[in-house]
Write a structure and sequence with these properties.
The protein is an all-alpha fold. The chain has helices at residues 7-25, 39-63, 69-77, 79-90, 93-125. The model has no long low-confidence stretch (mean pLDDT 90).
Length: 131
């Protein structure tokens, strides 16, 4: 039986898949001259912001809560700070704390997934890992 996914979960799935894609592409795309990042890293950062904003808006609509506009915008511009602020403006303190911890765990899992994909991609292509 297939699992029906609501829009916020689809956005989270797209976010997780973006980490996979960034990990796979990181050994392929060269770094910017004298910088510790590549064009993939910049594009991925922008995508993370867009998906964070989209998730906040979709999650608020799904729960029937009008998301505070500035909180969702802050989540899009600076997700590491904006998403917890969004939680604390739309939930009780205890629920916001649990949601923030869950979001942090999701970020750690996605980062680890991206690293594993980078290692696998580098090994398969015979290229060094970016430093």
């Amino acid at each position: 039986m297939p699992i029906a996914m609501n829009r916020p979960r689809r956005v989270l799935l797209a976010l997780a898949l973006s980490f996979v894609a960034a990990g796979v592409l990181s050994p392929v795309v060269p770094q910017v001259a004298d910088k510790p990042y590549s064009a993939i890293d910049v594009a991925h950062a922008l995508l993370i912001g867009a998906l964070s904003y989209t998730w906040c808006r979709a999650e608020g609509l799904e729960r029937g809560v009008a998301p505070p506009g500035r909180s969702a915008l802050l989540a899009g511009l600076f997700p590491i700070l904006g998403v917890p602020i969004y939680f604390f403006r739309t939930r009780s303190f205890a629920k916001a704390l649990v949601a923030t911890l869950a979001a942090a765990a999701f970020l750690v899992a996605c980062t680890m997934l991206s690293g594993l994909c980078a290692i696998a991609s580098a090994a398969l292509l015979g290229r060094p890992l970016p430093t």
